[in-house]
Queue: 2 jobs
Job 1
Amino acid sequence: KNQVEQSPQSLIILEGKNCTLQCNYTVSPFSNLRWYKQDTGRGPVSLTIMTFSENTKSNGRYTATLDADTKQSSLHITASQLSDSASYICVVSPNSGGGADGLTFGKGTHLIIQP
Amino acid sequence: EPEVTQTPSHQVTQMGQEVILRCVPISNHLYFYWYRQILGQKVEFLVSFYNNEISEKSEIFDDQFSVERPDGSNFTLKIRSTKLEDSAMYFCASSVHGPESGELFFGEGSRLTVL
């Protein structure tokens, strides 16, 4: 069964610090991996989407990396801001025609930025 | 910037009542989806819709659920006889391309509380 595991489950850091969130997946064959930011009570917003051939992708202070061999991805946040407080969700799409039902969502990492 | 809009933002209903959640996808998008997220849990796929018909549905999407695109802009989710366990955030999403490769844009969600 395809799975996406994210760690840590929650994280508290001080404003201005950097942090890295992890995503391990078992989805195979693999098409792409996405990171979403979900503010409390709001819908997920796309940060990055990477195909299997991409190693890294940046979106402002967010940098996602992907190692398709070890089936791991990370999301690095630089110089954190209070507005970065949110859940960060890793979503993996298989390359097997599974459609929307094949998209595998992680449980997310709940990040809290303290002033 | 175009966005997916959902109404209502919050609905409280009695068990057994019918509920209709409404969504206006981004205008040039072709694929539409409903997801739900029970409090504290991960996002779950319900149904996808393309070319005026359901293209996929999950095990959650049983006979109590239905979707409709009554006109060129609205996309609705109906729950015929709500149960306590239907309490969740319901997210509508849309994409230009199919779910395997297309970026999904989510609405802000409709919070359903069943009493």
Note: The longest strand of chain A covers residues 30-38.
Job 2
Amino acid sequence: KNQVEQSPQSLIILEGKNCTLQCNYTVSPFSNLRWYKQDTGRGPVSLTIMTFSENTKSNRRYTATLDADTKQSSLHITASQLSDSASYICVVSEGNNNDMRFGAGTRLTVKP
Amino acid sequence: DAGVIQSPRHEVTEMGQEVTLRCKPISGHNSLFWYRQTMMRGLELLIYFNNNVPIDDSGMPEDRFSAKMPNASFSTLKIQPSEPRDSAVYFCASSLGYTQYFGPGTRLTVL
């Protein structure tokens, strides 16, 4: 079983709407959690990275939250734009050896 | 800075051939990562280097895969012999600290 589960698998929203992507993990001990955006045909781009002591971090219209107690993270996108159409990947690093565990990603499509 | 540079961008080869993928990290970065991405398995870390030294190669699928980093500005990932199941997009990323910067990837097709 994958130690990082993302939901939904895919999502379609209208331009201008908000959305929230979920990442649940069982990785332990926890080191950090990252959200990446990957446009089709491109490499992933880092959006946020959070350590144990951080519970929210923003990057322009992207806001990530982390609840280390429930082992859940969310990525909230505000006022979506067509350019937000991409895959969003959650990556959790283990505390001891910094091994990275990857989620399968959420495919977001923003329609006009 | 041009970012992480990978070459070639596309590679089509026949089963059994040797394939070499190349990566130039961002100048000044001290860590370099090789990833593989497929539809079935998503993104997987193959190996990473810190200060040119391989730290963790537990993600390398088998002995057919090898990676080198002879200096701070160059790394290679070699597959010999290649097999159809190696078809994937291979990404190189570099970092100085937590944030990794990915290259554009090499799309490998093994026929």
Note: Residues 87 and 107 of chain A are 4 Å apart (CA to CA).
